[in-house]
Design brief:
The protein has 429 residues and is of the alpha/beta class. The protein contains twelve helices and 18 strands. The longest helix is centred in the N-terminal third of the chain and has 25 residues, at 82-106. Bound molecules: adenosine-5'-diphosphate, aspartic acid and magnesium ion (MG).
Length: 429
């Protein structure tokens, strides 16, 4: 099923009558870190199947496996080939699927595990940050028909030439929601996606950084998408794009309790009453400033064309007012991409006849998000005052309809997040 198309259900009416609800359960790294935790997750999947559902389980690599694999690569070389990095990283999830299948078998239930390749998870070829293009639901449906729980490796796929790809850190969420969407497009009814993690839902800010943060009972796709893109690591942002596009209800909840979590869902009118839903912080950014760029049509287009061609995602961009035919241009990128950006930027300044390239690797971003911002005023001013009162200097500001972001020094990142959270009293209902 092509994920980009707005496809129709291919199911026959007759088949629909016998279909049950379909549940995709995703267990993150900490939820499968030990044998005991894998067994607990297995029992949850079996319980869902016993309630009459068709169940897909998506698993991440256990515990810190992905970090350990990255460290292993670093011991060999500073700049490993992205293709081989994917080949390496995908092994983490392959361990988890096999163990999960064994755990379900040990409980006496039927299950089969699949890698991304085996389940037809086709992506583009952008190694380490690939995007899903299509998913094949036939193999899953055949296993459902046999009564099996289907276990799928998160975070991985293959490109058109069967090269293993990965979806970017935290990408197992996207595997889960994409599978839910694919099954819906293939005719499954009442598809829900449950994200089991080490927190009991989505909070007003990362509870590890802001202890007073409060759990939300619901949040709109738009708000969650912004928060995830702005550093709320609880959900992979691409997963929310799929959820929104294919209208998949996503329930984020704890794998260690039965408590209700947070429902990520369509925006309803009542949500506008809340001005700021949450705050987030992106810790590891870098700022690049190109001095004295010739102020002529096409200069910015050329700069960002070359950066995009190197598969680098630019975060925020600011161009200053020009003086004497020249302008300064600043943008931020993920700290992990900075070495690649420096290569491109140095080449560019020569080509364009621009001045110096300045790099600041000590950059973070703090943001507030809420659909209520559309209809309320004074929100930006309140955020700037919160940072000013905390004596934090704002280096760049960017806004959209439902978010405000400030670029600051990383030295104040956590402090800024807490200051903003307190200023908007997000801990209060
Ligand atoms: P998993 O391995 O299950 O995918 P992650 O570590 O990716 O888990 O995501 C869960 C973590 O996300 C939490 O432990 C929490 O520290 C962090 N987090 C960041 N922002 C938020 C937020 N707004 N709400 C809840 N958790 C958040
Ligand atoms: N194992 C991968 C990571 O650690 C994917 C995931 O956990 O979602 O980023
Ligand atoms: Mg995650």
């Amino acid at each position: 099923m092509r994920m980009a198309a707005s496809g129709h259900a291919t199911q026959h009416r007759f088949e629909r009558l016998v279909l049950m609800a379909t549940v995709v359960q995703k267990f993150g790294g900490s939820s499968v870190a030990t044998a005991e935790k894998i067994k607990r997750a297995a029992r949850r999947a079996i319980a869902a199947r016993d309630r009459g559902n068709q169940v897909v389980v998506v698993v991440s690599a256990r515990g810190d496996t992905t970090d350990e694999l990255i460290e292993l690569a670093k011991e060999i070389t500073d700049r490993p080939s992205a293709r081989e990095m994917d080949q390496l990283l995908a092994t983490g999830e392959q361990i988890s699927i096999a163990l999960m299948a064994m755990a379900i078998h040990a409980e006496g239930a039927g299950a089969i595990s699949f890698t991304g390749h085996q389940v037809g998870m086709i992506t583009d070829s952008v190694h380490t940050k690939a995007r899903i293009k299509s998913v094949d639901c036939e193999r899953i449906k055949k296993e459902f028909a046999k009564g099996n729980i289907v276990i799928v490796a998160g975070f991985q796929g293959v490109d058109a030439n069967a090269n293993v790809t990965t979806l970017g850190r935290g990408g197992s969420d996207t595997t889960a929601v994409a599978l839910a969407a694919a099954l819906k497009l293939c005719g499954s009814e009442n598809v829900v996606c449950e994200i089991y993690t080490d927190v009991d839902g989505v909070y007003t800010a990362d509870p590890r950084k802001v202890p007073e943060a409060r759990k939300l009972t619901e949040i709109s796709y738009e708000e969650m998408l912004e928060l995830a893109s702005l550093g709320a690591g609880v959900m992979h942002s691409r997963s929310i794009e799929f959820g929104k596009k294919y209208d998949i209800a996503i329930h984020v909840r704890s794998s260690f309790s039965e408590a209700e979590g947070t429902l990520i869902t369509k925006e309803v009118k009542s949500m506008e009453g809340i001005v700021v839903r949450g705050a987030a912080m992106t810790r590891d950014l870098a700022k690049v400033t190109l001095r004295s760029v010739p102020d002529r049509p096409g200069a910015a287009a050329e700069i960002f064309h070359q950066i995009a061609s190197a598969n680098i995602v630019v975060d925020d961009i600011i161009q200053n007012i020009s003086r004497e035919g020249q302008t300064d241009l600043s943008f931020t990128v993920a700290l992990a991409d900075i070495e690649d950006v420096i290569d491109v930027a140095n080449g560019l300044t020569k080509e364009l006849g621009a001045g110096a390239v300045e790099i600041d690797k000590n950059i973070s971003k703090v943001s507030i998000v809420g659909v209520g911002m559309r209809s309320h005023t004074g929100v930006a001013q309140k955020m700037f005052k919160a940072l000013a009162d905390a004596k934090i200097n704002i280096q760049m500001i960017t806004t959209s309809e439902i978010k405000i972001s400030c670029i600051i020094s990383r030295d104040h990142a956590e402090q800024a997040l807490r200051a903003v959270h307190a200023a908007f009293e997000l801990e209060k209902e």
